[in-house]
Amino acid sequence: MRTLPSWAFLIAVVALVGATALCSVGAFAFAQQFAVDLGTSGVQVAAFTDFLGVQPTVTPSPTNAPPTETPRPGDTPVPTAPPATATVDPLAGYSWDDPRRINILLMGIDQRRGETGTFRSDTMIVFSVDPVRRTVGMLSIPRDLWVQIPGYQPNRINVANDLGDSGGYPGGGPALAARTVRENLGINIEKYLRINFDVFERVIDLVATNGIEVCPETEIDDPDYPDAGYGFIAVYFPAGCQRLNAEQLLQYARTRATEGGDFDRAARQQEVIRSVRDEILTAGGVLNLLAQIPALYTELTGSYQTNLTLEEIISLAVLASEIPQENIRSGVIGVDHVRFETTVTGDQVLVPLHGALRPLFQEVFDGVGSDSTSDTSSTVELSPAELRQQAELEGARIVVFNNAGVAGLAGQTRDWLLARGVRVAGVGDYPAADNAPTFIRTYTTTIPLTARYLASLLNIPESRIERASADGLTDA
Questions:
Q1: What's the pTM value of the predicted model, to 2 decimals?
Q2: How far apart are CA 400 and CA 424, in angstroms?
């Protein structure tokens, strides 16, 4: 059997996070053109360039300039043009040059100001960006999803962050939550970002002084919304488009007082993310935030946790600004993808249906329509962990071919797979590389579970598993 990577199929990240959760850091990446315009118009942006560590280029005066004539009494002064201000592009050199798909897990926790301790995640969204094809997928995960948390008993997925922090897991709660997503849903998460809701409100206050526009289809009336003092307040949003301030926007994104409960809430959170991104990409949003960035970055330290470097955040945000709105897809793990069950303790939980999840992932991450079918749709439903166990028993011989023309990509992919316990027999370059999407080719009479496990591991749809006879690529 053989895997055939095209442009990149290692793990993945998302740039929209820079435009939402860590707007305080990432949003200034969207200011590239605005910084140039500001410099051209003479507006000083020294604090911004100092923050980035960029030294402005100073052009020395020519040594052969004509001497300046001393004006005589009675002469009419001749106006002189102000000296030209050097234009500095503070984002020059920041670009995301890795062609591989990258996924990032965004989490929000209900940590009130001044509170310490460990917390369950209130929001979980996976962002997946394809840097080559300039697409982004957003997938919301319900907090009541019933999963196996590595090293612990089965529990709701939102408990992983709490357990990771309280149990001293390497990387803390975000790292354990990322591993939980990977092992239960088969979505590879290497980057994560966790924020509290104070961060959200602070950023919105700066980036959108006139609020953010949202458009609820039906009215929302919640008389029992939890307030900051662990009491309750009434919140109400009429149907139709309206602009909300930071506090209202957070209430809009968090309330569950609709017929669809958590599923509706997940859809609203994605609406908020899109609206915030649109606001940041306008001149007003960037100008409101530009001068505040250095102080904001320092102020928010300790209110978020991430394994992204500052340089990665800037580069991802630049990439996000280049992705058109029509290339942003979204989805929610909803009623069609879960089974409602009650635990022995009487808790209502959602058990994932992996067979139903695969088409959702294909649609969100790869743009494959939900009506797409493949010859694997009738296979026995197995979780990613079960697939891995069965794949190890098959002992398939795996070879990786580079179909992207990116030097060293096959070797990088082999190393990535080896780090995840997948043995790779060899690597090579695919003849006449055409940069087609990654696919998996099997040379057996049936599609082995190894192929399905690799598809799950690499975040590619099972429709890209194909059968083949001997083709000269291997000695199979």
A1: 0.62
A2: 7
